[in-house]
Design goal:
By secondary structure, the protein is an alpha/beta fold. It has one domain: Oxidized Rhodanese, domain 1 (3-Layer(aba) Sandwich). The protein contains six helices and five strands; from the N terminus they run βαβαβααβαβα. It has a five-stranded parallel beta sheet. Strand 4, helix 5 and strand 5 form a beta-alpha-beta unit.
């Protein structure tokens, strides 16, 4: 099993969909979140994997649809692969990350 990819426009729709239960994961560094962050996202920095990986099943539901975000989509793709390997069944990488989101969805967001 592998993960899928979604566009930032599709992510924006998921963030406003109140009828569905989703989980959103941001794998960027704390300093990146201080520049720009989206609501509803759980922060699990990829660089701190050793600190949170043993708690993954208490922090996230492996059966919920999960969307993973980073700056451009590279680190989030790594996280998606890892989540699938841990038995997560519905994992999607956000193509282009927060950078694409700030250009295509909400131009008022800071860019870095």
């Amino acid at each position: 099993m592998s993960f899928t990819e979604i566009t930032v426009t599709e992510l924006a729709a998921k963030l406003t969909d109140l009828d569905q239960r989703y989980q959103f994961v941001d794998v960027r560094e704390q300093r990146e979140l201080e520049l720009v962050a989206l609501p509803k996202f759980i922060h699990l920095p990829l660089s701190e994997h050793d600190q949170w990986s043993s708690e993954i099943y208490t922090r996230l539901d492996k059966d919920l649809e999960t969307f993973v975000l980073c700056h451009h989509g590279i680190r989030s793709a790594q996280m998606c692969q890892w989540l699938v390997a841990q038995g997560f069944t519905q994992v999607s990488n956000v193509i282009g990350g927060i950078d694409a989101y700030s250009y295509q969805v909400d131009a008022s967001l800071p860019k870095y």
